[in-house]
Amino acid sequence: MSAPTRFRAAIVGISGYGRIHLGLAREAAPDGLALAAAVVINPQEEQENLRQLRAAGCTIYSNYEEMMRVEAGRIDLCLIPTGIAWHTRMTLAALRAGMNVLVEKPLAASVAEVQEVQVAAAAARRFVAVGFQDIYASTAQQVKRRILDGAIGRVTSVRLLGLWPRPASYFSRNGWAGRLRADGALVLDSPLNNAFAHFVNLGLFFAGREFGASAQAQNVEAVLWRTNPIESFDTGVVRAGTTDGVQLWFGVTHASLVNREPEIVIEGECGQIVWRHERECVIAPTSGAAERIALPDTSVTRTEMMKAVMRRLSDPTAFVCTPEIALRQTELVASVHEVGEIVPAPGGVESRPRQGGGEPMLCSPGLEEILQRAFHDRALPVAVRS
């Protein structure tokens, strides 16, 4: 028998990434979560899901404004797995309707929007959890506590390198991919603000001096390159410091020929920690044996995220990625766009088959070597001269 309903949930969209949140909501049913309302703008494409939702007593709406108006005061948790341009406006609407919120990352494209959410959440006495799923993993939180306990001494630097090739269809999959503005709002879509935003957020979290806080970047420098015909950049390298004296280096791209899973290297005065996405985390103090921690895959971290949000519904002290934490990633991305000029990537543009097969993609030859060298040197990249 399923657990009795304790919490009523709503979801804005059940297609695209909404399928992930719909699955998470269904997984949470034994914990007492019931989908009571859903916004579906493409009913012809979701007939089976609509049948199942209606059979379970879920009310279907064609737009989010109507759902917020009708369901105000009746929903405990609103899931918002929509595009970046809609995160802030939908989160604010849900808060004003008395709903707690789980919104997909990033929370917003501007600092002002995050601050508006913070004010609205405080006024509504509701929480906002941001869907940076990796920060919810028990292993990530274990690593953060080990850092704070002095496992590698005072942290001096945090570096991130990730290469995820993406074909042309990635940038045409919706109306905001690769855009700076869309749907009347700031988007600033880029590897730093979308696919790798999880790891930028995690790097800032690891650099934070308190468990529930992330580091704030300052003195930001950026190199922004464009290979694909988009408004934004598809390769970005950031060098900065934090207000606590930690050096930051983040390098990511969608225009490399080869794939390299995200890796975060945390240097301390007495050792280092290497965090390899979905593989392992190695804590290596200068004196003593290295400790290896297996890292979960993305499906597990998403489930952990939903469980954390469920705990927060009952316990206001339960950890979630708050707007205060998410703000640090937004601040960094905003600064990147202020200081960096988007220019053509070095090496030109070539169409190549992707590593492992699949749809061809545009790449800039030599990009992997440039980023790897800059990662090693903690430097802004310099194009290889022929």
What does this structure look like?
The structure is a single chain. This protein has eleven helices and 19 strands. It is α/β, with parallel strands linked by helices and 386 residues long. It has two domains: 126 residues, Rossmann fold; 218 residues, 2-Layer Sandwich (Dihydrodipicolinate Reductase, domain 2), CATH 3.30.360.10. The strands form four sheets. Strands 16-15-14-13-7-12-11-10-17 form a nine-stranded mixed β-sheet, with helices on both faces. Strands 3-2-1-4-5-6 form a six-stranded parallel β-sheet, sandwiched between helices. A two-stranded antiparallel sheet has the order 8-9. Strand 10 and strand 11 form a beta hairpin. Helix 5 runs antiparallel to helix 10. The longest helix is centred in the last third of the chain and has 17 residues. The radius of gyration is 21 Å and the shape is globular. The N and C termini lie far apart (68 Å). The mean pLDDT is 96.
The CATH superfamily of the largest domain bears the name Dihydrodipicolinate Reductase, domain 2
Report the β-strand fraction as a percent range.
25-35%
Name the CATH architecture of the largest domain: 2-Layer Sandwich
Q: Round the Cα radius of gyration to an integer and report it.
A: 21 Å
How are helices and strands ordered from N to C? EHEHEHEHEHEHEHEEHEEEEEEEHHEEEH
Topology at a glance:
Layout: E1 7-12, H1 18-27, E2 33-39, H2 47-55, E3 59-61, H3 64-71, E4 77-80, H4 84-96, E5 100-104, H5 111-124, E6 128-131, H6 138-148, E7 155-163, H7 168-171, E8 181-182, E9 185-186, H8 197-207, E10 217-226, E11 235-242, E12 247-253, E13 260-268, E14 271-276, E15 280-285, E16 291-294, H9 298-314, H10 323-339, E17 342-344, E18 350-352, E19 361-363, H11 367-377
Helix pairs in contact: 4-5, 5-10, 8-10
